[in-house]
Amino acid sequence: MSRPTVRSAVRRGSPQLRLRVGFLVIAIVLSVFAARLVQLQGVDPGSYAAMAAAEGSVTVTLPSARGEILDRDGQPLAETVDGLMVIADPALTSEKAPQIARFLAKRLHVDYIKTLDRLRVEGSRYQYVARQVPASLASDVVNDAEDKGFDGLFTERDPLRVYPGGDVAANLIGFLGTPGADGSARALAGLEASFNHYLAGKDGQARYQVGAGQEIPLGDNTITPAVNGHDLHLTIDRDMQWYTQRVLQQTVEGAGGDSGVAVVMDSRTGELLSVADYPSYDASRPQDFTDHKDLFKSAALTDVYEPGSVEKVLTLSSLIDAGLATDRTRLTVPPELDRQDHPIHDYWEHGTLHLTLAGVLAKSSNIGTVIAADQFKRGQLRSYLTRFGLGKRTGIGIGGETKGILPSGSAWTDQVDDRIAFGQSVSVNAIQMAAAVNTIANGGVRIDPSLVEGHATLDDGTEIGSDDATEHRVVSADAAHQTMLMMERVLDPDAGVAPLAAVPGYRVAGKTGTAQEVSSDCGCYNGLTVSFAGFAPADDPRFTIYVVVHNPRPGSGGGSTAGPAFSKLMSYALRRYGVPPTGTQPSRLPVEW
């Protein structure tokens, strides 16, 4: 009998095999768990923790309040009032999303497609539909939606921007556009745009955990408070601004003009009490003026023109300061002055005249001014005009300001030199020119014009405002005084050309301006710009006012058109601020010899 063969392998199904396989499986599972643990705790713990927290959390925007824009007395020109945000709960709105989106698009003028998407966001319980909705409208929309069986709409507080004055200072203030995709409104013009970051503040947020659609009382709740924007205080006097705009409108329309500007400045501080443009727009209804977007700016800063004879104030005061003339310097003025390429004329026909320098200014003689300016050395007049502020921006804080045109180098020819002396071949903006004339009112010291009271920060980081205004001497106090006496003769009915600019009971110094207007269509002269600039009381100035009318009907002049508007504005300013007459006698400087 043979013996059975002995097998070395373990029998299938034996306990040892099962044990080895089991240990192998356990080792593999533990390795996977270990690797996952390393990933979670060592490699990328933050993102996974955030994902876990977000699974059951809701984030709510806490809107900040935009700073107000206030006049010099604290009266609001732009303010933030209570409004409401319309919110949707997609868990409740998704079923009827198309119907609800059409309803909201019609009532709130929101985009249908974007609203439809928001109403259908899966896993979300909070989507805003519209921001900064007037409270009454938002409440009506939500109530009407409930009546129609549209569930899931509710409201939360969301401040709303309003402009209580309508068109008052709209050219300066600007406005906000419709809130964008991130819910924030875009600043589209004026100070709202230039100081957007300063005014806007920063929205906060509240983040809380939810379960079954409800906030978990003891959950992880985090609140980042909203930071409200800064208020912007202006030098503008709201009532003075309103009155200036009305007088300017009447003046432009009465003269059949295309447009105009008017500036009222505190002579001592350079603070702007009013800056009016006509035509303008209503900042509370900018959508009504979308076909005239050129109105969404301040023409007093962005539009340039030739100042005409108002510039003679700068030319003649510079001559006196340089010791090249006095207010009594005698000049022989011929009927015509042959110069280079074109003879120079006065606006009226005359024979040979014997005028003093005061007479040249009082009668606004181009010929007399050019003859007097011949005393300047080459480059001397340009140097003075630069110190008066021509050819550079005032920097008062509104975007789009032009620096004007003051020729230099080879562009300053002999012909240009003659024309600039009486206000042509040089371009300015209205505030620039008002500040230049105010230099004479301020005793020969130019002070930067200011629109912002105190100081504030532009979006580019520049600090501006009345606290940061600088000043520098342009002409001597004596030269400024002599020029003031000459400017008084401009309003004298027996000697000057602008008796209609007078203010009864007060001494007034002023100067008319009439200049040909350059057309952008042809690059040639086409139409006129008429103006009047002055200050009062002449011997103790409180206010400097400048009125400009573009393209009035033929026959209009600075004295007859802008002069009466100046008189109304100056009279109002003197009464409003209780400025008494000085009680002194006006200038009797001789105008002829």
Structural notes for this entry:
This protein is of the alpha+beta class and 593 residues long. The chain folds into three domains: 59-80 and 159-234, Penicillin-binding protein 2a (Domain 2) (Alpha-Beta Complex); 83-135, no CATH class; 238-282 and 301-576, 3-Layer(aba) Sandwich (Beta-lactamase). The protein is 33% helix and 20% strand. The strands form eight sheets. A five-stranded antiparallel β-sheet has the order 15-14-24-23-22, with helices on both faces. Strands 1, 10, 11 and 12 form a four-stranded antiparallel β-sheet that branches. A four-stranded mixed β-sheet has the order 7-3-2-13, with no helix packed on it. α4 crosses α5 (112-119) and α4 runs antiparallel to α6.
CATH superfamily of the largest domain: DD-peptidase/beta-lactamase superfamily
CATH architectural designation of the largest domain = 3-Layer(aba) Sandwich
The overall number of domains is: 3
Helix share bin: 25-40%
The protein's oligomeric status is single chain
Instruction: Figure out the total of helices.
Output: 19
The CATH topology name of the largest domain reads Beta-lactamase
Compute the separation of the termini in Å. Answer: 166 Å
Whole-number mean pLDDT: 90
Unreliably modeled segments: 6-10
Radius of gyration, Cα only, in angstroms?
37 Å
Largest sheet: 5 strands, antiparallel
Widest β-sheet, arrangement of strands: 15-14-24-23-22
